[in-house]
Amino acid sequence: MHYRRLLGLVLVLFSLYLPAKEYKNVTYKQIKAEGKIWGIDLSHHQAEIDWKKLKTQKPHFIFLKSSEGASHADRLYKSNYKNARKLGIIVGSYHFFSYRSNGKAQALHFLKTAKYQDGDLPLVLDAEYANNMPSAKTVSRELISFLKTVKAKSGRKPIIYCDYDYYEDYLEGELKTDYLLWICDYRQKPNCDWTFWQTTDKFKLAGIKGNIDFNIFNGTKAELKKLLF
User: Which of 117, 192, 213, 226 is deepest in the core (most CB within 10 A)?
Assistant: First the structure.
């Protein structure tokens, strides 16, 4: 009897962990069969996209890199945005945060570069670890300055993209209100209240050369639409 209970517990724990492992090597065929609300994220690193081919395996949403730092703009952002909208794909625009300039300057540059029309997802702050990080106090202050500036100008709180350790280190204890989280975790399902989960960077899709990032939305299609501008 004890052996059966132990075996049952092991099977339950295994089933809870298994989905994260499955999404490391996720395929379009798998997610279509499961009916997940899913998307990808793109930048100039993916080079030119064959949008006609992508239409055959169309994601529910795409996050596009718009800008980085206080002056850089992604060279393919405008064309990617135009083509994604033309296919009826929900678009979100993200900014890659740099520690070489202050948060407000980066936010203003992002707001000049990014598009956020009716039907788009909220703007996104992409914050990641880097070599020679400033002090935790400085990082937190500049990130919050960025978030507040984007919220004040766009009218919506940005989505925060990071891994959960980063969120705990720099943002969790500093934010006064909740923000939607897009968590990167290639090992397992995030142990937090996530809205988007980036499960792998090894996904393949028609019309795009090489591997790309795969993301799951934590909700239904109707709930995704409630987030839009």
Answer: 213
CA 144 to the chain's CA centroid = 18
Catalytic residue among 22, 34, 50, 128: 128
Tokens of 12: 């339950």
In the residue annotation, 34 being an active-site residue is answered as: no
Phi–psi pair at 3, nearest 5 degrees = -65, -40
The identity of residue 144, as a single letter, is I
Number of domains making up the chain: 1
For residue 51, the enclosing domain spans 2-225
* H or E element in which residue 123 lies: none
Nearest to 28 by CA among 212, 189, 190: 212
What CATH number has the domain bearing residue 204? 3.20.20.80
Strand pairing of 124-126 and 159-162?
parallel
Q: Determine the Cα–Cα distance for residues 136 and 3; give it in Å rounded to an integer.
A: 49
41 flagged as catalytic? yes
pTM, two decimals, is 0.90
